[in-house]
Amino acid sequence: MHVNGSLNARLGEVTERIVKRSQESRARYLARIDAAIENTPPRQRLGCANQAHGFAACGPTDKARLRDQPTPNLAVVTAYNDMLSAHQPYERFPDLIRTAAREAGGTAQVAGGVPAMCDGVTQGEAGMELSLFSRDVIALSTAVALSHQTFDAAVFLGICDKIVPGLVIGALSFGHLPAVFVPGGPMTSGLPNDEKSRIRQLYAEGKVDRATLLESESQSYHGPGTCTFYGTANTNQMMMEIMGLHLPGAAFVNPNTPLRDALTRAATKRALAITALGNDYTPVGRVLDEKAFANAVVGLHATGGSTNHTLHLVAMAAAGGIRLTWDDFSDLAEVVPLLARVYPNGKADVNHFQAAGGMGFVIRELLGAGLLHRDVRTVWGSGLDGYIVEPGLDAAGDLVWRETAAQTGDDAILRGAATPFQPTGGLKVMHGNLGRAVVKTSAVAPERHVIEAPAKVFHSQEAFQEAFKAKALGGDFIAVIRFQGPAANGMPELHKLMPPLGVLQDRGQRVALVTDGRMSGASGKVLSAIHVTPEAARGGAIAKILDGDLLRVDAVTGVLDVLVDSDEFAARRPAEADLASSRPGVGRELFAPFRAAVGAADSGGTVFAEAFA
């Protein structure tokens, strides 16, 4: 299968820029994994006692294969827990994987687990201050899981916000191993997301009680599987598919279905087929190259994905020796059309997106427009042309792939590249005398893409909410919520700002948000300049803003400025904040070394910056 479309000039330019910028660091990375490849499979070099420990608990068949044969052994790195709805279905996966591995003549072992927290549970709570750092903990945990060096490939079971990026960073540290990511799928559709948002705003206004709010949330988040809005978790799944780490069409198949199980078994067999013991060796460090990361940024723009990936993709790329910058995001956003309307960028959820054509349709359209590199390595053994399909089961119950329909199933949800929802991606990188920031515009009404108004300054989202409840937020204003960056308190998402800001906007006020913190991947209709860097805790200009200063957030030209005399502003001393309350409790004291070592948002907000230099 082939789709015509010469490569877009901007995509080619940006990719070449990434290649040149990354030349030295990428060469060092590839030399390191090439050295590891020379010693593959590593378990054959282990001492007898080491090997015996590695297969001591296996059954007779697996033990015999591991002991006496050059059998491929598959590591399962799992983020299973049964509190996260997205990860609860993974409870069944190890048995499915072990059985499929035996059928393919190999073996599989659960190499280790990684932590998996739910941002939906910790939103607005102290635990959210561990969320971004959990990504790097997951990377460390992945490294520990694979450190036994008894494996020839790995499958990764993870879906949600920091989990997939952390798994990718860890996998790239073992870049000589093939890696297949195995999703669990979204929960079935429940209460529509726009209705859930409406109830949240009514609760913020005091018009419905807590019982009504809880019932609404329970009808929305109602069963096993990923949340159905297009936040960071589902953006992760899009990204794994467009980067070639999924089997084609795997991203958005519901859990606990025959098709989902068939895809899991097929992923296992494919992982075993691409080890160094066979003829189709596909190490993950070679799959995730500069072209793959450029494709991921294109997919982010085309689908209106989560702003969190302006952090995660930068950190992931660095783990493979690739220097991705916010300028790359910005330049690609100017040429990539928005093809999808999925909540919060529309009313549909990911199940509707899947039914309308899903990832196969998106990839077809982007390839046809020359907006993806088709000549990339994937775990499926093809370029991206092999991903213009959707999986299904034939009459015998066997897994088959069919060509994706050429036309969208619903053009209110998914459109072709010739008739997009808007001609450019829904993301803008901001520059100005306040530093750099990111703004997501795909869910913001065009008439609100430029807001100029006086500042109202707060040092926490709780202080803002108190002002809202006290009816102290009249008139047009730009809320400045600072001391929320990685070094201050771990850069929590500030999702609970959205209902009150939405209420004020619906009342006719012109409002916007400027913060060095993060917003949820589901941030929506209020213009928000987020990830401001340098952050306030490290003396960034955002720490100099005073109540009443005139600010301009211009998502059209990408300007983020404080409109104060430059000499006066330069002479101001940055404000300081008492951050003591963010230090003890809920495990935050254990993360003091992370807060001290973490890099800036535009370098990925990671503690590994020096390790990847």
From TrEMBL:
**Can you name one GO molecular function term for this protein?**
metal ion binding
Residues recorded as binding [4Fe-4S] cluster, renumbered to this chain, are: 160, 227
Dihydroxy-acid/6-phosphogluconate dehydratase N-terminal domain segment(s): 72-384
What GO cellular component entries does it have? cytosol
For whether the record's keyword set contains Cell membrane, the answer is: no
Write the Enzyme Commission number(s) for this entry: 4.2.1.12
- Keywords tagged on the record: 4Fe-4S, Carbohydrate metabolism, Gluconate utilization, Iron, Iron-sulfur, Lyase, Metal-binding
Kindly report, in one word, the top-level EC class recorded for this enzyme: lyase
Q: Indicate the family of this protein.
A: Belongs to the IlvD/Edd family.
Which NCBIfam families does the record associate with it?
edd
Q: Which HAMAP family has this protein been placed in?
A: Edd (MF_02094)
Name of the protein: Phosphogluconate dehydratase
Instruction: List the source organism.
Output: Aquabacter spiritensis
Q: Which gene encodes it?
A: edd
